[in-house]
Amino acid sequence: MEAKTGKRSVWWELSSAGPCMLLRRLINRHNQAAFDPFSWLAVCYCSPEFDRADIIPPPIQPQRETLNYLVTGLVDPPDLEDEQLSLGASSQWLTVLGGLKQMYPTQSVYVLNMELWMHVAPGADGGGKRWEFESEEVPLVRTSGAQVRVLCGSFQHREGKIAQHPLDTVILDVTLAPGGEFEYQAPSENTTFLYVFGGKVFFGEDAQVCYGKDSLLRVCGSEIITSSFSTGGRFLLFSARPLERKKPFSCPKNDCVCRMKK
Predict the structure, then answer these.
(1) Of 30, 123, 133, 214, which residue is the least packed, with the fewest Cβ within 10 Å?
(2) 90 class by beta-carbon count within 10 Å (0-12 exposed, 13-18 middle, 19+ buried)
(3) pLDDT tens for residues 50-87?
(4) How far apart are the C-alpha atoms of 262 and 258, rounded to whole Å?
């Protein structure tokens, strides 16, 4: 196990073997104070040998709730000209949104497995609970430029698998179409962050900054404006009211986004 020591890297890279192509621990005891009430977040990019039965649930604790989310998806071909497709390019290795490569563009594969832990206030509902979802089971909202799977909370009046949460938690799985846009207004007092795991995502009204796969973004303020151009993009959005912090989180030098990894 080796700690990442780069200036903007905050996670540990764990050894990957068997069903994991890449395993990252994004939130842990070293940085969880900045992500209150989220205390643990790890993501595993799945290999073709991945089997969810191999996941060992963490011990139950009365002041912690856990969520495991398995992202599945169809393998889509990259942007190819019609002439290239007619020459048999579809038989080449093709990339699924999320980074996994497979031979067949219509094959459903496991892309990413996420493990999330959250602190629970003493006596509050949710302590000791565990949820396990697959992306195809999660309520879906289609907009003009995105598909939004609602894991927790609600989006555009559609309730998620966890409809209500004591900390007004919202967890979304957002897939941006090429040229698509997505906007979200989070309460300013919330802890809000995103993890990009596919394509490239631009942030800001004028697409000011761009982040690709494997970027963890701590959002300051409340308004989130995202877009994607030719690649499309996919990210997880987390937002919840903190348990301990009494003042809104502020980023260094008033940046609108704290860049954990670019």
Answers:
(1) 123
(2) middle
(3) 888 878 888 888 889 999 999 987 654 344 344 443 43
(4) 10
